[in-house]
Design brief:
By secondary structure, the chain is of the alpha+beta class. Helix content is about 35%, strand content about 20%. The chain contains 22 helices and 33 strands. Helix 19 links the parallel strand 26 and strand 27. The N and C termini lie far apart (about 55 Å).
């Protein structure tokens, strides 16, 4: 058999129709500084993947592709590639910061490194209170630097500004939110820290030499010193803990970004003088609170779904991660608008003016964006108390102008904040937060058992064989490589488009191409997979000399549109059992016959899966998988390079009147949905009809990220067909079926079709890139959707 395979490989490799052209991807890997992490094999090792027929792809020249991923040559005076320490020295020489400010900001960067490490490794550990730990790390850094007079934290409502008795050089006021987006922590989705630095008011600095300085007097002076409008800021920024750890900072002379390089333990300049696009087509707002909005806010969101300012009819795309840092970061890079309006639940708004809205507004204006409270410039708003709340809108200048115009034109409702008058029912609901619903496991294996040990136990129990273990281990190695590339993409020249499209017509990112080759090489090297199906190839890839018959399908980078903004992405895979139609290579077969057999072998249902899983590239790198005996999660420990058990036998929480009340879907496309699906979204926004809290809306724009949150917190993820995609958008073989299989293994449900009746794991694909709608979540939510749609029929 091996001899026959080798003979057929030699025959196929001479057929120009079936030889894969990989010189471009290899050139990318060679050009990127990460070759050691993502090395690609020779083209001859993949004999059954044929060259794309797309004229656009065929016209590309290899030299252009190679140069596309090289770090751009910076002007002589550019700071790109500088370490954060050297950048501070550069700014000090230019007179934009003094030595004390440089020390203070260096201490901020150290605090952010420590918080990033804690978020990455401790989020799943029992007894760890990450918000409290982050607050202590930031506070101690600000006190320990000796350059602050007053420190104010937005960690909780009881936190008060305090004077720093140990300060010996400077009386600056530092305000901060140590861990923004805390509801994302358990799901390892984006979080961040926000900070601002004000000049101290000398008349408010306590006189420590006076024995008569009472505690009450000192507290009063600290509050007076801390309550500054944003326009008085000297420096402000945020640090985002996501697939990359990125520090964005301004000292009043433009916005700069620094990406953490774990190889040297330093932040490195990756974004220089960021300028927000004047317009964008993405909006970010929690539509789960729609029933509590003012008429003006509702009119504004509805107008975006109909084209916004230009009334083009093309709807804006909705994204809402639930972390101000992540939503603002994406808005600054891509354009559009990020909104935190007042509502019935929060009539004064949600954001703290001093520790969140003020610093973010300063950052925005330094990037050419606008920040508004809905009726005025956010930087002009002066806080009267440390934890004063405010509505907040930030985005491209034309987008914020349009928003203010719509709010001003709305019928008056007797509320200057733009929140309006709210119904009592909406105000009553939502007082409780649908945040963490997962109880952290205290199993002795959690935090200690590695993926390899877990697979050994599964093999002993008869849930998998040795060949499948080799495949999973190869996938884990591939995902570690991709995780490292994603984490350092902004400083390795791996952001942006690759100037090509895949089989489905999607524009490919540079990491799409490289990650696909990393996955293909891993599967080829494992020799346990006879056929590979990937989103980035138009036909199945046969593996010569394979000693196993498994079919492996995968999407190497799910949510690749998020890469440039460093918000969550992931990889999805499914490993299908060998079947009677396996790709048997016979000596008498020509290349086209072999290809036809491989295509036939690829048409498998989700019920034939031996293993399914995904890896989330976010604040932590998390692998979730099942081999048919429950769903288990493993978090990458960067210190050892091992995936360590962090989630044991997960079950999707059922939705009650107080918990599991989450929903996800692109609300920007709601006008394209069928009437009954639009009604269902409105049904969730109004509380779901069970008298419980309103459903919380989140939409990251990456199936992995949105599914992962649903798996941990409950609720439902909606990906219905629409007028632009009547067959749906998700791919059945390597996205829908693997995720549906995992959902059922976790006690949930996954369906498809206009009435959400069909189990996704029962559908036989007609072609390898077949699209499909998908509805996945807790069993009660999916059954509730089916009942709702049936009643509307």
């Amino acid at each position: 058999v091996l001899a026959a395979r080798r003979l057929l490989t030699a025959r196929v490799s001479r057929d120009p129709r079936l030889v894969r052209t990989t010189s471009r991807a290899a050139a990318m890997a060679a050009a990127a500084p990460s070759r050691a992490l993502g090395a690609l094999g020779p083209a001859s090792s993949r004999p059954l993947a044929r060259t794309r027929s797309s004229p656009r792809r065929a016209a590309r020249a290899v030299p252009r592709a190679a140069s596309a991923v090289e770090t751009p040559t910076a002007p002589a005076d550019s700071v790109l590639g500088m370490t954060f320490t050297n950048w501070l020295l550069h700014e000090e020489k230019a007179g934009r910061v003094d030595a004390d400010m440089a020390v203070l900001l260096s201490s901020v960067s150290v605090a952010c490194k420590k918080i990033a490490a804690a978020v990455r490794s401790d989020y799943y550990k029992p007894g760890v209170d990450l918000p409290a730990s982050a607050n202590a790390l930031f506070r101690d850094a600000m006190v320990g630097c000796g350059r602050t007079g007053v420190v104010a934290s937005g960690a909780d409502e009881d936190a008060k500004p305090f004077a720093v008795e140990e300060s010996f050089a400077g009386d600056r006021v530092v305000v901060f939110d140590p861990l923004d987006g805390v509801t994302n922590v358990d799901a390892a989705v984006c979080t961040g820290s926000i900070f601002g630095v004000y000049a101290g008011k000398s008349e408010c600095v306590p006189d420590w030499s006076s024995a008569s300085s009472a505690d009450a007097e000192i507290d009063q002076l600290c509050v007076a010193n801390a309550c500054n409008p944003g326009k008085n800021l000297e420096a402000a920024g945020y640090c985002m803990y996501s697939s990359s750890t990125i520090l964005m900072l301004t000292v009043g002379d433009g916005l700069f970004g620094f990406t953490f390089d774990p190889a040297i333990g330093e932040f490195v300049a990756s974004h220089e003088r960021v300028v927000v696009p004047k317009r964008g087509k993405i909006y970010s707002v929690n539509e789960g609170n729609r029933d509590g909005w003012s008429i003006g806010v509702k009119n504004w969101v509805d107008s975006l779904k109909n084209g916004g300012p230009d009334e083009s009819g093309k709807p804006y795309s909705a994204r809402y991660i639930g972390s101000l840092v992540a939503d603002v970061h994406r808005t600054l890079l891509y354009g559009g608008v990020c909104a935190q309006p007042a509502s019935a639940q929060n009539p004064e708004g949600r954001l703290r003016l001093l520790t969140e809205a003020g610093p973010m507004a300063f950052v925005a204006e330094q990037a050419g964006a606008k920040a508004s409270t809905g009726f005025g410039r956010a930087l002009d708003a002066e806080p009267s108390s440390v934890h004063q709340r405010t509505p907040f809108y930030l985005g491209s200048p034309e987008e914020v102008d349009f928003l203010e115009k719509v709010l001003a034109a709305a019928p008056p409702e007797g509320d200057e904040s733009g929140a309006g008058t709210f119904s009592s029912s909406a105000a009553t609901k939502g007082a409780k937060s649908s945040s963490k619903s997962r109880t952290k496991s205290a199993s002795s294996r959690v935090g200690s058992e590695t993926l390899s040990t877990w697979m050994f136990r599964q093999e002993q129990a008869g849930h998998m064989d040795a060949d499948l273990a080799v495949i999973i281990n190869s996938i884990a190695v591939a995902c570690k490589r991709i995780s490292n590339l994603v984490a350092t993409a902004p400083i390795r020249g791996l952001v942006g488009l690759a100037d090509s499209t895949n089989e489905s017509g999607d524009e490919q990112k540079k990491l799409d191409v490289i990650s696909n080759d990393i996955f293909c090489d891993a599967m080829r090297s494992s020799a346990r997979s006879s056929v590979i199906v990937t989103e980035e190839e138009d036909v199945p890839v046969g593996v010569a000399d394979a000693i196993g018959g498994y079919l492996v399908s995968f999407d190497p980078i799910d949510g690749s549109s998020n890469i440039d903004a460093a918000v969550p992405t992931g990889s999805i895979w499914g490993v299908y059992h060998p079947g009677p139609d396996e790709c048997a290579l016979d000596l008498g077969d020509d290349a086209e016959t072999v290809l036809e057999k491989c295509v036939t072998n690829s048409k498998k249902t989700g019920e034939q899966l031996a293993c399914a899983g995904y890896v989330l590239y976010s604040s932590s790198t998390v692998m979730m998988l099942t081999v048919g005996s429950g769903v288990y999660g493993f978090t990458l420990d960067w210190a050892t390079g091992e995936f360590v058990l962090s989630h044991e036998n997960l079950k999707i929480p059922e939705t009650t009147t107080e918990s599991g009340r989450w929903y996800s879907g692109n609300q920007g496309n709601v006008d394209k949905w069928a009437p009954e699906m639009r009604s269902y979204a409105e049904h969730l926004q109004s509380g779901g009809g069970d008298g419980g809290d309103p459903f919380v809306y989140r939409y990251i724009g990456a199936l992995v990220g949105d599914f992962h949150r649903t798996l941990l917190f409950g609720g439902i993820w909606l990906y219905p067909p629409d007028s632009g995609a009547p067959e749906g958008k998700a791919r059945l073989l390597y996205e829908v079926a693997p995720m549906g299989y995992m959902a059922e293994q976790a006690g949930g449900a996954a369906t498809r079709g206009p009435k959400a009746k069909d189990r996704v794991v029962e559908v036989v694909p007609e072609n390898i890139h077949q699209r499909s709608p998908m509805f996945v979540g807790s069993k009660s939510m999916v059954e509730g959707l089916q009942k709702f749609l049936a009643e509307k029929a």
